[in-house]
Design goal:
Layout (H helix, E strand, L loop, with lengths): L3 E6 L6 E7 L10 E6 L2 H4 L13 E6 L4 H11 L10 E2 L7 E2 L2 H19 L2 E11 L1 H12 L6 E5 L5 H10 L9 E8 L3 E2 L16 E2 L1 H11 L5 E8 L4 H17 L10
Helix pairs in contact: 4-5
Length: 268
């Protein structure tokens, strides 16, 4: 079945979200289809639109229409947490970008996007997955911390743990035993590094001074694996840098969303 497109506007931010929905053809399973919700849909959906597993999974991709300047500004707001007092603040590396809109985006997903989606496809409520990379991966962790969305599997690829001196840990610190079991997959490249300063526009000049990020992802895994009700797995991608992770992790997210959620302890 050909994907359908739809537009929803978030009144809180004024951002117009372009939704691409792929629903398998034929009758749905008795429990409904598994769902993969892709953030950064302008970049992630093109990686999957010919994937064979699309005949087994409903995929919803949320984007901003394809304009890179618009996308980078909007995602910097929608996908990032507020400060400890719940206030918006500037992006630490691009001060012209406003950050801290994750609460409003959470509400938009819960009150507008998911109700619309449920009218379009029969979904398995126990097999709903949310995927994000980089800033969007940061939002996935925020969604885990807030426990306000019904996703049973959260997939965070290269989440921006560094953002505002690790503010996401403040929110994760508030997690206690989860009211319902959740699964968290953390995906990271073994060649990834964090750079305190944004990339300079100097073609052919490699960046230096990067701090490897995989140890931070391992620490995050070990910390969250102790949380009752949350099953966690870390997926290291050999030789993958930050950009390469987007491609590989998006494809892995589709594979994971198509699989039955494992039971028991799988914290390794």
């Amino acid at each position: 079945m050909a994907p359908q497109t739809h537009t929803l506007t978030d009144a809180a931010s004024g951002h117009q979200h372009h939704l691409t929905l792929s629903v398998p053809g034929g009758p749905h399973p008795a429990m409904g289809w598994p769902l993969l919700c892709l953030l950064d849909g302008d970049w992630t959906w093109p990686l999957l639109q010919h994937a064979p597993l699309l005949d087994r999974v409903v995929v919803l991709a949320l984007g901003y229409g394809g304009d890179k300047a618009l996308t980078t500004r909007c995602r910097a707001y929608d996908y990032t947490p507020p400060d400890k007092q719940g206030r918006r603040w500037a992006d630490p590396r691009v001060p012209a970008w406003q950050g801290g809109g994750a609460p409003a985006f959470t509400q938009f997903l819960g009150e507008q996007v998911l109700p619309w989606l449920q009218r379009q496809a029969a979904l398995n409520p126990a097999a709903l997955s949310l995927f994000g990379h980089s800033y969007a991966g940061l939002f996935v962790l925020y969604a885990l911390a807030r426990q306000a969305l019904p996703f049973s599997r959260l997939i965070a690829a290269s989440p921006s743990l560094w953002w505002h001196d690790g503010i996401i840990h403040h929110y994760l610190d508030g997690l206690d035993a989860l009211p319902a079991p959740r699964r968290l997959d953390i995906i990271a490249g073994q060649a990834e590094a964090w750079y305190p300063q944004p990339a300079q526009a100097t073609p052919g000049v490699p960046r230096t001074g990067g701090i490897p990020t995989l140890p931070a992802m391992q620490t995050l895994h070990d910390r969250l694996a102790r949380l009752a009700g949350l099953s966690v797995r870390l997926h290291p991608l050999p030789e993958a840098g930050h950009a390469a992770v987007l491609d590989a992790a998006t494809r892995l997210a589709l594979t994971l969303s198509a699989q039955p959620v494992p039971s028991g302890d799988w914290h390794k």
